[in-house]
Amino acid sequence: xxLPAWLLLLSCLPAAALAAQPFGVDLNGRPIDRLAPxxxxxxxLFFAASDCPISNRYVPEIERLEREFTPAGVHFWWxxxxxxxxxxxxxxxxxxxxxxxxxxxxxxQRLTAMARVTVTPEVAVFVPAGTTLREVYRGxxxxxxxxxxxxxxxxQRHDLENALHALLANHPIPLPGxxxxxxxxxxxxxx
Length: 191
What we know:
Layout: H1 5-11, H2 15-19, E1 24-25, E2 31-32, E3 43-47, H3 53-57, H4 59-69, E4 75-80, H5 87-97, E5 102-105, H6 110-115, E6 119-120, E7 122-129, E8 132-139, E9 145-147, E10 150-151, H7 159-168, E11 183-184
Parallel strand pairs: 3-4, 4-5
Antiparallel strand pairs: 1-2, 3-7, 6-11, 7-8, 9-10
């Protein structure tokens, strides 16, 4: 899928340039200026959509990974990039699926551009590098979905989990074994 021109332009900017403005807003409309406390080894952005069945099926897996890696200082965000995911819709989604993690509405799709993601669910992992963020992983969570409509009973390869273990062990981070499968991110309308 081709990215809109404005998204391509934003994706060319370094993370530091994007960070000069808020990354997004919380569910009360307050800007989110920092994605992790100082000293955090990594930030995981899980791009979700309230109406994407594939994204919704990954809620338990992301919560499991969050429980596993948060004690090591990894910070997780549930990122909602689609314009129709208003604060009210996201709150209902959180209640329906029992989501308890940190949420950011990517109202300007800055995180979407920074991570260069195109579907939900898709993840991006960043490491703080001074005042900037460096992406070290982007792609699928695991290989559970082969293609739209084609799903394994359970994942055989846990791409995100393997990447986080490698990162924390200071080993080379493996690339995802295939493309993410999910629902297209809806480009925001220009004002």
